Recover the amino acids of this structure.
């Protein structure tokens, strides 16, 4: 090999040796610090799992706080729910809020479901006497929703009475209902079954969007 060829090859050999030494150093570093790196990987995994769990938990919390709104013409049907029932119970109660943003009054005239033989629109009346007897009466002409009003169907007030249930109302289940209005027509609504404790909170629930609406009943 000539001196000129030797000068050309030597830099390549030096670079190859240098790379080989670097690989050995990195391998030695990894082997020496493998327990630490493994621990770091484990901790990183825990951090990632924690972040993912937090995101999922936040999503679940949000899903519970997001309100349900259904539009039917100028009406808005808000948060339709059914109170859970015990096995063997033949009667259930449904609640929601209805806002009329139109220029004419409307009226809820009928409700149809496939999980009960019939549905009645009821009003609870407390007789002003020494005993304060609570009575319910059927609104034969339907429930009026005046212009600009939000009518609340809630415990101890207006409500839907599901009579002769075909199955128990279990928390978390969804049940379809067809609500018919005098002007807005028929609208399909999904009612969610909630616990008795959650049902008791409905009385104090006024959605922010309806703070300026007139609450009747």
């Amino acid at each position: 090999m000539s001196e000129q060829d030797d000068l050309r090859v030597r830099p390549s050999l030096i670079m190859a040796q240098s790379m080989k030494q670097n690989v050995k150093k990195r391998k030695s570093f990894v082997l020496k610090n493998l327990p630490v790196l493994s621990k770091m990987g484990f901790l990183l995994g825990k951090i990632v799992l924690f972040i993912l769990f937090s995101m999922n938990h936040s999503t679940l919390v949000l899903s519970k706080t997001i309100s349900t709104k259904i539009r039917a013409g100028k009406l808005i049907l808000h948060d339709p729910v059914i109170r859970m029932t015990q096995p063997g119970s033949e009667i259930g109660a449904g609640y929601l809020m209805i806002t009329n943003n139109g220029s004419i009054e409307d009226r809820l005239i009928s409700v149809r479901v496939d999980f009960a033989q019939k549905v009645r629109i009821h009003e609870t009346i407390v007789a002003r006497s020494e005993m304060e007897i609570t009575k319910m009466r059927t609104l034969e002409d339907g429930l009026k929703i005046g212009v600009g009003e939000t009518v609340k169907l809630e415990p101890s007030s207006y409500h839907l009475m599901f009579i002769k249930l075909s199955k128990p109302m279990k928390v978390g289940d969804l049940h379809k209902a067809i609500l018919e209005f005098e002007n807005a027509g028929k609208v399909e609504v999904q009612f969610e079954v909630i616990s008795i404790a959650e049902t008791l909170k409905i009385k104090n629930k006024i959605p922010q969007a309806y703070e300026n609406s007139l609450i009747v009943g």
